[in-house]
Design a protein that fits this description.
Elements (H helix, E strand, L loop, with lengths): L3 E7 L2 E6 L2 E6 L3 H12 L4 E4 L11 H10 L3 E3 L4 H20 L10 H21 L5 E5 L6 H8 L4 E5 L7 H4 L5 H8 L4 E4 L2 H15 L2 E3 L2 E3 L4 E6 L6 H12 L8 H11 L5 E8 L6 H14 L7 E8 L6 H21 L7 E4 L5 H10 L2 E4 L8 H9 L6 E5 L12 E3 L4 H13 L2 H17 L2 H25 L3 H13 L3 E5 L19 H12 L3 E6 L4 H7 L6 E4 L4 E3 L5 E3 L8 H14 L4 E5 L2 E5 L5 H18 L5 E6 L2 E6 L4 H9 L6 E6 L2 H9 L5 E5 L8 E3 L2 H12 L2
Parallel strand pairs: 1-4, 1-6, 4-5, 6-7, 7-8, 8-11, 12-13, 12-15, 13-14, 15-16, 16-17, 18-19, 18-27, 19-20, 27-28, 28-29
Antiparallel strand pairs: 2-3, 9-10, 10-11, 20-21, 21-22, 23-24, 24-26, 25-26
Helix pairs in contact: 1-17, 3-4, 4-5, 9-13, 9-14, 10-13, 11-12, 11-15, 19-25, 21-22, 23-24
The protein binds GDP-alpha-D-glucose (GDG).
Length: about 725
């Protein structure tokens, strides 16, 4: 089985200097747990920063660290203090973190930090390149390493790369603010599989890819020139069993075994039977909505004074990035709010808010989860939020209520929670009341559903689903590659070409010989196209035909003086070289006046779109309109047209960013076959890019060499990736 390596900013161990050596202790986070199962099962390495900057090394430390990590199959990437300052604390945490969490006012734009980000991503990529063997895969994690996929792909296109983003991917309208937006997306598109926690993040990403690069996306596959890339939502799970068994273990403890916190919690409830405890746990981060939570809790006590003295909030805020200005300010604000609320509502035997600004041992965490009646989770933005899931897993008695912000990715999976808007303090206060008043039956009903779901889709299932998708994309790419015109296929085609005595060559124009332009008129042939056509037509064994959906005047003008055949308007008109225009069979265009108003209506409603008129068809172009709106309107238009054409012999054709209405019964396939007629060709070739060319691929004899431009499904025998590749193929034929 091929190996899978993991790349993340930190290695999954904490490093402690003991005497003259380093002791590693496993870190306990969800990512570490989930990924350990992957890199161990697939025999890979974990590549990341060990957590000690190079400046703190004493002589021999680097070797000692490397040796210690080698035993754990980890490869340390060494960073300097400057790297950590600018790449991690700088660009990662002061630019990407606020940007991706919609805190635009906190974003710092610092060229030095960006340069360091690029350089450190390069260090990680190089470390990975050192360990990669043929057939290996890598799974890159998170926003600190967005450029790594492309850096690896450029050097090792054969390696399958997965990337998972643990934080939200913002709307394009926010993402576009970033000066380095193109570089970031190009970096991510080096991956073959891109994972997000939710579909919303995925669709924001698609929208960004479309808008920045105009790349085609079919369902969840991104079709770049060289590869198909899969993107999908994989909501991260937790190690469910670990939390539920820890809760059972703690539940079973006798008095002497209980921790101090455990005893204190029991004492709190024993003073009055109707006491309730609300829990909140987060890193102290401005994305977590901690001040909102405090204000809403205060409002609750104000609105429901009967609960003063009976309901407390226990708030664990783990210190995080505490040397950064915005975090310092947040801490100050939280301290003040806690002081204010405790001062206002506190009594001798009642503290409204128990506030811990530190990290607690795992068992204490479980004690908090099991003791609290309500989990109050109110981030203003959060990629997923694992605390909500951990609370559910720890509720072995199937009671407890979760109040959950709709801005956390986890809310998509937890319909049974009370979902709130974190900026609506009144709604949160009311939800607290609703939660503490909820009947036990209702709590159990909701908790049972949540538990079943989270147990099934735990962190191991999450990582195995991702790995399965890595295999899937490998398969999809392989399917494409088997049809790809490789060097050896090209050689064989060239040999066939050279041996043939008479050849029919059908070439579509737009998207095949010439790339798409915003305006159809701008796509006129360049000198290379003319050169290829000249060379092809100079060989008298060749019958060269441009077969296109374009109108006859344009193509006649563009190829005036060239010894070629033209088949235009999808086969309506044919002009054999030296001859006159001839219609395949009599058709009329009276229907246009009935259809035109509908198209005009769509032009008015879709900025950037326009109508192209051909002799026997009308075309609605939407290449220049907003990508999503264009697709939406195109579907709407197809729908309307389907009703309109019911009594006419008309056809609706969907091309590349166009919807065309044309007279029925004629297509490129029928026209190409008619052209061949009874003539004997021992080499027939057809190249085209959109689905109107599929008629040709299907109708031509089986022996024909049919070539699709692009990576989508096709009836063609071969595929090439781009217009450039078509030109390369044709050049290789004519130069043979
Ligand atoms: C990022 C994304 C996404 C907290 N306090 C203590 C402690 N914890 C543990 C919790 C939980 C973890 O920390 C926090 O995870 P979250 O998911 O809530 O949040 P982030 O750290 O911001 O993580 C987030 C996540 O990545 C995964 O993709 O869900 O959206 O921002 O596991 O239990 N653990 C211990 N003591 C504490 O005091 N032992």
């Amino acid at each position: 089985m091929s190996r899978i390596h993991i790349l993340s900013n930190r290695l999954p161990f904490n490093t402690e200097r003991i005497d003259n050596d380093f002791k590693l202790s496993p870190s306990v986070g969800g990512l570490a747990t989930g990924m350990k199962s992957v890199y161990q099962k697939y025999n890979g390495k974990w590549i990341g920063w060990p957590g000690i900057a190079e400046e703190h090394f004493e002589p021999g430390d680097q070797e000692r660290i490397e040796k210690a990590f080698e035993k754990e199959n980890c490869v340390p990437v060494h960073l300097t203090t400057n790297d950590v300052d600018k790449y991690y604390e700088g660009f990662s945490n002061k630019t990407i973190w606020p940007l991706f969490h919609y805190f635009n006012e906190f974003i710092e734009y610092d060229q030095d930090c960006w340069d360091a980000y690029v350089a450190v991503n390069r260090k990680f990529a190089n470390a990975a390149l050192q360990v990669l063997d043929d057939g290996d895969s890598v799974w890159v994690h998170d926003y600190q390493l967005l450029l790594v996929p492309q850096m690896i792909k450029n050097e090792r296109p054969d390696v399958t790369i997965g990337f998972f983003l643990h934080i939200p991917f913002p709307s394009y309208e926010v993402f576009r603010i970033l000066p380095w937006r193109n570089e970031i997306i190009e970096g991510m598109l080096g991956a073959d599989l891109i994972g997000f926690h939710t579909y919303d993040y995925e669709r924001h990403f698609f929208s960004t890819v479309r808008r920045l690069f105009g790349i085609e996306i079919h369902f969840n596959q991104i079709h770049t020139e060289s590869r198909i890339i899969l993107a999908d939502a994989f909501p991260m799970g937790i190690d469910y069993e670990k939390f539920s068994s820890a809760a059972s273990r703690i539940h079973a403890k006798n008095e002497s075994e209980k921790s101090e916190l455990h005893v204190e919690l029991e004492k709190y409830f024993s003073t009055s039977p109707d006491r309730k405890l609300i829990l909140s746990i987060d890193r102290m981060d401005y994305t977590k909505g901690i001040p909102n939570r405090l204000k809403a809790f205060s409002l609750f006590l104000e609105k429901y004074p009967q609960y003063q003295g009976k309901v407390s909030l226990v708030m664990l805020a783990v210190p995080s990035r505490d040397n950064v200005e915005h975090y310092v300010n947040l801490k100050k604000q939280v301290d003040e709010l806690v002081g204010y609320i405790n001062g206002k509502y506190g009594m001798i035997n009642y503290t409204p808010i128990w506030y811990f600004y530190r990290s607690l041992p795992f068992d204490n965490l479980i004690e908090l989860y099991t003791a609290s009646d309500v989990a109050l989770i109110t981030p203003v933005r959060d990629g997923m939020n694992l605390v909500a899931k951990e609370y559910v897993a720890s509720r072995i008695n199937k009671d407890g209520v979760i109040i959950l912000s709709e801005m956390a990715g986890v809310s998509k999976e937890m319909g049974e929670a009370i979902i709130i808007n974190p900026n609506n303090f009144n709604e949160i206060a009311e939800s607290i009341y609703k939660a503490i008043s909820m009947s036990t039956e209702e709590q159990t009903f909701r908790m049972d559903l949540l538990q079943k779901r989270l147990k099934r889709y735990d962190v191991f299932k999450w990582s195995s689903e991702f790995v399965k998708s890595l295999e899937k994309i490998k398969g999809i790419q392989h399917q494409f590659n088997t049809k790809k015109v490789t060097a050896s296929v090209q050689k064989a085609l060239t040999e066939n070409y050279c041996e043939a005595k008479s050849r029919a060559i059908f070439l579509d124009y737009d998207g095949t010989l010439s790339g798409f332009k915003n305006n159809p008129e701008e796509a006129r042939p360049d000198s290379e196209v003319y050169q290829i056509i000249s060379k092809l037509t100079a060989d008298e064994r060749n019958e060269v035909t441009i077969i296109s959906g374009r109108d006859r005047d344009t193509l006649e003008k563009w190829f005036e003086g060239y010894d070629i055949n033209l088949i235009v308007e999808h086969g309506v008109w044919t002009k054999v070289r030296g001859g006159q225009w001839d219609m395949l069979y009599q058709i009329n265009a009276d229907w246009k006046e009935n259809i035109r108003p509908t198209l005009e209506n769509f032009v008015d409603r879709t900025p950037g779109s326009f109508i192209e008129e051909k002799n026997y068809s009308l075309v609605w172009h939407y290449r220049k309109s907003e990508p999503e709106q264009g697709v939406l309107r195109a579907n709407e238009l197809k729908d309307e047209l389907t009703n309109l054409i019911a009594n006419h012999n008309l056809e609706i054709m969907e091309g590349n960013k166009v919807i065309e209405v044309k007279s029925g019964g004629i297509n490129k396939g029928v026209a190409a076959l008619r052209f061949i007629g009874g003539k004997q060709f021992d080499f027939v070739m057809a190249i085209g890019d959109d689905w109107t060319d599929e008629y040709m691929f299907r109708e031509l004899p089986e022996t024909a060499i049919t070539v699709k431009v692009g990576l989508v499904k096709s009836a063609a025998r071969y595929k090439v990736k781009s217009v450039d590749a078509v030109r390369e193929l044709l050049n290789s034929l004519v130069n043979a």
